Amino acid sequence: MEQTGERLSTPMASNRYGPWAPTTRHEVFAALDGCAAPWWFAGGHALELFTGRTWRAHDDIDIGIRRIDAPAVLDHLRRRGWEPVVAAAGVLSPWDGGPLDAATHQNNVWCRRPGGPWQLDVIVGEGDDGRWVYRRDPAITRPWSEAVLERDGVRFLAPELQLLFKSKDVRGKDTVDVEQVAPLLDGGGLALLAAQLRGDHPWLAMLRGLAPACTADDVLVVLDVLARAGLRAWVDGGWAVDALLRQQTRTHADLDLAVERASFEPALDALDQHGFRIVRDDGRHNRVVADRVGRMVDLHAFDPTVVSIDDDGVARHGGDGLGYERGGFDGRGTIGGREVASISPATLVRYHTGYDVDDDDWHDVRLLCGRFDLPVPPDYDRFTSR
User: Fold this and answer.
1) Most buried residue, 26, 151, 158, 209, by most Cβ within 10 Å?
2) Dihedral angle at the C-alpha atoms of 307, 311, 314, 318, nearest 10 degrees?
């Protein structure tokens, strides 16, 4: 096949490069029978295999493989009479027998019998022997036992990971898929999707509505994991407000925790050992993790070395200027009847400023300022003037 500089459209929409006539899962099994490298169903078929039912027709059939296994899988298909063609960066190029390059976006290989229609889209992904890696954010990894599921001898990409890929450029069929599948996801799957999607994403409200709330028992489970690892943590965010008030005053989607910078990676490791996987990477000072139950933890790191103290008494911790009030870690409160360390009231109020505050923020600030005799920041003038 000649290379073309014209932009490739999706396989199901494209006739310019030849028609698609998708094969069946049975035929895919026959084509890959005896292949030593692992592979699994992806795309809409993966979601069907997870749910055990069908709700729409499919224009193509996808399988997933690891990039390190691409030569073995494609060579196997070629020896079975298939023609593998790399679809990357706007061109179609016959596979040359070598490895596929992530840097040049060699992430898809279309396959057909010589002279026939396209029948199979091989999706090339990242990972090593231990873990699957999300191509768009390498901080998002999963053990293979969680990334690729198996039922009745059929392997398929975990549904939350498939929906994560579908969430980037949403088509009508993708929304149909998420409406069918999301209600069946566990809390961890919902947490991953909700953490990765931005505030204006059309799926976000539905996913948040399905996600479980973070309970006091959930908070204590997380604190126990860290305590057993010898790590100290301060409750932050909405749960810190309720800890200081010594009663739960509203529902919470997650748990915010602060740990010393030296404890950050050990805390992530301890949580990972208890099934908490990274669902969002917000930089060297912040990760969001969740377990399969849906317990979501927003973990923040701070450097206890005070670099400077400004005129307002704000201690600047670390070279990145993370700011805390003097005494910002002196808060004490209770959650579920247990005494916990928390961020101080004044620091929590200050952290509830500097952005477009909402009703939950006003709820927290109103209670904190009332209980601890703190001034209400001007950010809340529209609430106080009601």
Assistant:
1) 158
2) -20
